[in-house]
Amino acid sequence: MVDFTTLPFAVQVHVAQESNVLVGIHGAGLAHSMFMRQGAGAVVEILPRGFEHRGFRNIAAIRNLGYFCTHAKIISSEEWNPGEVVKRIEVEVEREDPQNDGHSNTTTTGELGRRDEWYVMDIEIEEDGFFEITETGIKSRMTKDRGH
């Protein structure tokens, strides 16, 4: 198990290059998949339930890596609702307008959404589910290595 935040960047890259399977909770650590050997590994991503992000799946596809994901229960102390509107706001914007003495004021109404604070949330995954998805990633490597 490696905590990339404790390593210098050059070492992080080296570890990723030598890894066959990269397992992690959705976040910056999985960006290291871009340093894995082309076509020589698998990425296992654990996403907070309700969170759909395809960035690491896309990196895996570009790098010809296996990709496996599962969702885990959010156990944050506060409720989180993606897309929740916290407040409606009106903002007056001054713009240059050559037809109106060079200036024009426009009022715009918008919504202030709650920031998707997935990166500070704790998650919980059943042990069996964790081992199952991790084993799937490892077995995909074993099958690929044997040429099946």
SSE layout and pairing:
Blueprint: H1 9-18, E1 21-25, E2 42-48, H2 55-62, E3 66-74, E4 85-97, E5 102-113, E6 123-124, H3 127-146
Parallel strand pairs: 1-2, 2-3
Antiparallel strand pairs: 3-6, 4-5
Describe the structure.
By secondary structure, the chain is α/β, with parallel strands linked by helices. It folds into two domains: 4-77 and 118-146, no CATH class; 81-115, no CATH class. The protein is 26% helix and 32% strand. The protein contains three helices and six strands. The strands form two sheets. The chain has a four-stranded mixed sheet with strand order 1-2-3-6. Strands 4-5 form a two-stranded antiparallel sheet. Strand 4 and strand 5 form a beta hairpin. It starts with 8 loop residues before the first helix and ends with a helix.
**So how many helices?**
3
Number of structural units classed as domains: 2
How much strand? Answer: 25-35%
Radius of gyration: 22 Å
Mean pLDDT metric: 78
Poorly predicted regions: none
